[in-house]
Amino acid sequence: MTKMVVGNWKMNGTRQDIDTLRTLCVMVRAYKVTCEVVLCPPWTLLTRFRDFIADNNITLVRIGAQDCHDTRGFGAFTGDVSATMLGDAGIGHVIVGHSERRAGHGETDAIVRAKAEAAIMAGLLPILCVGESLAERQAGQTADVLARQLQGSIPDWATADQLVIAYEPIWAIGTGKTPTEAEIAEGMALVAGVVGADFRLLYGGSVTAANAAGLLAVAGVGGVLVGGASLNAADFAAIARAAG
Ligand code: PGA
Asked: What sign does the dihedral 187-175-149-86 (CA atoms) show?
């Protein structure tokens, strides 16, 4: 299966970063990457980036969102954006259930499931994040936590072509501490044990240009979700190159 490389810019980026996008596009073309590259900038840059991709006939890089509301369509939800609106804006991918939103915005598994449902119904591909905290890992609860998150946040009816899963141990996000390859393989196997072998599974957490090739070679890893390193075009392009 083609690997997927997703960049999550989080709350970073200004309009000058059209130059970052331009450099990324030039580099992935020069590298002749065949993997799927998705860049998720903040709301303020979504349509600007989408227009750049469309106006320059770029097919190697796609633009995704970092979140959507759990309600489909429209409504009185100040500050929120629905998957319907993202689809209308020409956005095809959306991250849901990132640990920073689960922790910082009180997103429960039920809310994440509703977001994934809304995204799929709107024709988007949700990239749904799960992962254990350091305390949960140290308490030997990783398998239970992953099973609970997966069972609670993936719509029962979702098929493997409708949803991508990202395994992101919370303790590896933004810390520079990547799990060992054995730990990642174990995490992938735990996820596959719950959802089946068909879903594409990404690994996320301190992925860099230097460690990407090794992480992408781990059994079960179908791609990577990249935070900090995706802010640098050369680093993110190198990660995409490592994905094939
Ligand atoms: P990081 O973030 O690559 O900066 O660790 C990953 C993520 O939060 O998706």
From this structure: negative
Q: Is 206 in the pocket of ligand 1 (CB under 6 A)?
A: yes
Tell me if 226 CB under 6 Å of ligand 1.
yes
Closest Cα to atom 2 of ligand 1: 227
Would the pLDDT of 1 be above 90? no
Look at residue 159 in the predicted model and tell me its pLDDT: 97
What residue's CA is closest to ligand 1, atom 7?
Answer: 227
Q: Which of 36, 100, 132, 168 is catalytic?
A: 168
Helices (H), 56-180: 83-88, 99-104, 109-121, 134-138, 142-153
Task: Kindly state the tokens that stand for 217.
Answer: 């070679």
Residue 109: half-sphere exposure toward Cβ, Cα within 13 Å? 14
Per-residue pLDDT tens for 47-62? 999 999 999 999 999 9
Does the CB atom of residue 179 touch ligand 1 within 6 A? no
Contacts of 139 (CB under 8 A, 6+ apart): none
